[in-house]
Amino acid sequence: MDVKQAIEKRRAFRCLEKTNITDEVINELVYAAQLTPSCFNNQPWRFVFVRSKEILTKLKEAINKGNEWTHAASLIIVVISKKDFDCIIKDREYYLFDTGMAVYAMILRATEIGLVAHPIAGYSPEKVREILKIPQDFNIITLIIIGKKSDKENNGFLNDYQVKVEKQRPERLPEERIFSIDAFDNRLNQKTEHKK
Ligand SMILES: Cc1cc2nc3c(=O)[nH]c(=O)nc-3n(C[C@H](O)[C@H](O)[C@H](O)COP(=O)(O)O)c2cc1C
After folding, report:
1. Structurally, how many domains does the chain consist of?
2. Which end of the chain is more exposed for a tag (fewer CB within 10 A), N or C?
3. CA of 46 to the centre of ligand 1 (A)
4. At 9, which CATH number?
């Protein structure tokens, strides 16, 4: 699979089934993150991999309503960092940017090895912090839900919208809304509007 194919194949699927997470899988994902560029090579990303049945069960209690589909996760990667682990140049704080790039590298590599890697924001950081004993000064940025894509249309945890987007990638902004050439174009100055 080349990079373009991985970019196209990656989806935030929610209909997952269990899969075996070997040490080799974990090493592959960590390696993808390790080689990511970062400001001044600061490498601000840190990860807690949750694989054991016992801790997975506990961690799933920290996940919000609407994200019940995460119950089928075989691995959850808790992504953490601190602002002062990376460059701060006036109002530019690079730790989220660099950690985000590392996460995308992991997601693409996971896609390539046949896994679904779906980042979520819908969880309680307080509960995650407590369960995993993460120090207060870390920002718990995202949880990456890892599993194997299930062929079922609905694993019993999806709402109507989630069933719809399982089959079809949610709409993207048209090109002219996301880039311009040689000068800023006012068409870039619009937030994404969501249909109700
Ligand atoms: C930072 C972030 C937070 C997200 N949070 C959630 C979430 O809490 N629950 C969920 O089901 N999907 C979540 N998603 C997945 C997005 O909804 C999904 O990526 C988007 O709809 C585009 O669909 P696609 O990734 O399949 O192309 C999140 C994605 C990102 C990057």
Report:
1. 1
2. C
3. 21
4. 3.40.109.10
